[in-house]
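Methods, example record. To illustrate the input and output format used throughout this study, we show the complete record for TldD protein. The sequence lines were provided to the predictor; the line carrying structure tokens was produced by it.
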Amino acid sequence: MKVHMSIYLTNQKKTLKKLIELLSEDFKYVSVLGTDTCGKSYQVRRTGVSINDTDWAERGFVARIHNGYNYSEYSFNELREEGIEELIQNIKEKINEDIEKLKASSIKVSSYPLIEEERITDKLFKIVKILPEEVTAEEKIKKMTRIKDEAFNYSEQLVDFRISYEECHVSKVFISQNKELEQSYIWGQGSMFAIVRRDDNTKYYYDSVSGLKGVEILDELQHKAKDVVRLAEKLLDAKKIIPGEYDVICSPGIAGLIAHEAFGHGVEMDMFVKNRAKAAEYIGKEVASELVTMHDGAAAAENVSSYYFDDEGVLGTDTIIIDRGILKTGISDLLSALRLKTTPTGNGKRESFERKAYARMTNTFFSGGDDKLDHMISSIKEGYLLDVMLSGMEDPKDWGIQCMILMAKEIKDGKFTGNIMSPVIMTGYVPDVLSSISMVSEEVEIFGSGACGKGYKEWVKAADGGPYIKARVRLG
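The corresponding predicted structure is encoded as:
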């Protein structure tokens, strides 16, 4: 079913064009991003049910204007044709305030050239199998409750089972002197969380699904419920790992965590502008095994961060960050690209219309290779298969990486022993980790049920993943 465009934004387009026309009489570049995002989140657990508006809901606009030095922005959530003169006056006052601050500043302020845009008018509306509005909230909760109730039949050690589902309908327009763009899509995500207990020993396991999908997400979750409970039970017998350096196979989820932390944040090019990214010194140089090719881009894959245009009106791309081990480029927002005199990659994303656009990841993943997973396992004398990410951190200035992983499945003489270690911390120097990659599987999976922050704030949706990869890492 085709996703429909926001009626609110459609009705405001005429007024937005008028606003841009009037502002263009005094300013050489004017653009407006309009956003209308809505949705619901549902949770069912043993003790109850909850339904809430999605945390991503927003409705409003942000105007960007070249003020003669650089760019001023003004966000607003009310737009009426009869109030357009007052709005213009408020915008002009904000711009004059910005200019006075620039003149009075003792800090050297960089000037920015005018944004040059190709003339384009286009729209893209995505398709999902089941639109959220076609299924009532009661029906969704009933289905989730059935999945939860069935889970308690799988194990007497299960003490709680939580299932979450979220649907989010995103509509955006971007209008400038040369562009008129529209997009509307739905992303969905769901997760299951099983908590088991034996005596005083409590463990948990989770799994998730995501994508540009609607209520069909619930069917995908249902098929995973039994395995979630089974793997939670196995963790009750988990052991502590002996710290050391090991040959490991990283699951697609862990490969995605490495991609995200290693050369995701590390190649966001607003960090190049601020001289805070070591990657800027290594463009064109070898940073990984020749088996490693890494992508990022809204057009590189289909998941929760796949869009037609970014929050600065730049069309999404498929950017090859690493090509057979060679670092080729970073990912950029529009203003960073202007500053660095590079081509923008369509990675300018805002937490909301009230927030600044930064260079942010979209779909970040390693390409697949030629190896079979069973051959990869049989090649390991003593090591582990790492699976299920918990969290990660990286240092874009010094290239350190730390990944928290829920489980490591022991491998000896090319076979699983049945032993599981949990939790596990993987650490290393990014080029050492990526250069150690010696085998890459064919299949690639992308995951997008989480969110990504810029440091500790500015949260946006992002997806990552890859194939199974064999590498040499430090575990503790």
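Annotations derived from this record:
The chain has a mean pLDDT of 96.
The longest helix spans residues 84-104.
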